[in-house]
Amino acid sequence: MAEVKIAADSGGGSVGLVGPASTTGNAAIQLKLPVADGSAGQVLTTNGSGTLSFNSSRQITSVTGSIIKSIASNLTIVVVGITGTVSIKYYQDGVLKATVASQSVSGGSITTAVPATVYGLADDSIVYVEVVNSDGLPSNNRIAKAVAAIPTGGTRTNPSGTTYIHVFNSSSTFVTSLNSLSVEYLIIAGGGGGGGYQAAGGGGAGGYLTATGLSMSAATYTVTVGAGGAGGADENKGSTGSNSVLSGSGISTLTAIGGGGGGSYTSDNSEEATDGGSGGGAQGYNVSGIGDGTSGQGNDGGQGSGDFSNNTAGGGGGGAGAVGTNGTSAQGGHGGAGTASSITGSSVTRGGGGGGAGFWGTKGNGGTGGGGYGATDSDSGAQAGTANTGGGGGGSSDSGAKTGGAGGSGVIILKYTL
User: Measured between alpha carbons, how far is residue 287 from residues 204, 265, 290, 355 in Å?
Assistant: First the structure.
């Protein structure tokens, strides 16, 4: 095997150029070196006919976008030294899986649709992207991309196209391997329990948070769905509902505040309504003992009638959309109305306040959106808030169960389009 050695200027070493072990048909291969020495970072290339020249490196600098299991999507490939009409090649474990021809480079980038043979690969498969230049030469590098799974968690539905909805009726996790996901959310805390005795106030609805454009990246997010507060027993106010929380890497923690408990009669007014996402309604013997709602999440509870006759009545719990109404001598206060959302595709109202109790008068109705009705002295008891609406429980009266209705549990709903 022939070798040409080039001696170093000093040190006694050399560099050798070795010819091939054999040629076909006694071929004589001639490589013609360029006249110029090129620029920093350039590489020596051939035109296929033996003429060598210095050219800029053909590099892929980035590949953005996601390859999503079973979902058609686009990638944007930024390149240097690659021009004209090119081909995109996808490799897995060194095996060519797909070629997409006739792709145009515009402004140094290529936008290309991921072929079905690639997005049909198994979750977490690693695919390497290569670009073949218009002169037939491949890029000097390949960029790895993982095949991402559709996010998981809660009850996932696919109402249309590439839109997905995750409903969490209990605490869990939301897991995504996608680097960028724009999410619409609805977060409702547990509703407050109704007060327990003698013209008690209704429980306030759980705090209500909703918005679009929440940016989530590849991570596991904690989803905490708040429980409803227990109804007060005997001379006890209702318990405050538990918060609902969405938290995780890269987002500000989102917390919906649990609904306030409804007030209950005591001789010293020690069991007054509590603050919350929406506040609890006051007990019938105290006009001013309402629970305050949280700004941006709910409303205040209603006042008690303040009537010391047998016709006294508790105030309604605040709702996500309206304050609870005040009790009167003949009527328990109604729970404040909830708020409608179409995040699941149809309009659903959630976050209604619980109705106040009427001692001898008429019980207050629960607010639309899952609020429970209050009791009267002549019926069997107060109604609980509806599960997974954050509705407040109804206030109890003097007889019957003497226990306020429990607040309804909360819910967290996430929606996005891939």
Answer: 17, 12, 8, 16
pLDDT tens-digit readout, 49-108: 778 676 667 899 999 988 999 999 999 999 998 999 999 999 999 999 999 999 999 999
pLDDT band at 399 (very low <50, low <70, confident <90, very high): low
60 - beta bridge partners? 79
SS3 402: coil
The answer to whether 187 touches 256, Cβ cutoff 8 Å, is yes
Question: Per the structure block, which two tokens stand in for 41?
Answer: 């970072």
CA distances from 106 to 73, 102, 173 (A): 19, 13, 41
In 26-142 the beta strands, taken as DSSP E runs, fall at 43-46, 52-55, 59-64, 67-68, 74-80, 85-92, 95-104, 109-113, 126-132
Phi-psi region at 341: left, alpha or beta (left = phi > 0; alpha = psi -120 to 50): beta
Pairing of strands 181-188, 411-417: antiparallel
**At 117, is the secondary structure helix, strand, or coil?**
helix
**392: nearest Cα among 346, 340, 350:** 350
Return the residue matching tokens 């209702």: 238
Radius of gyration of the chain (CA): 35
Q: What percent of the chain has pLDDT over 70?
A: 89
Task: Give dist(CA 324, CA 261) in Å, integer.
Answer: 13
Q: Are 335 and 366 in contact (CB under 8 A)?
A: yes
Evaluate if residue 1 carries a pLDDT over 60. no
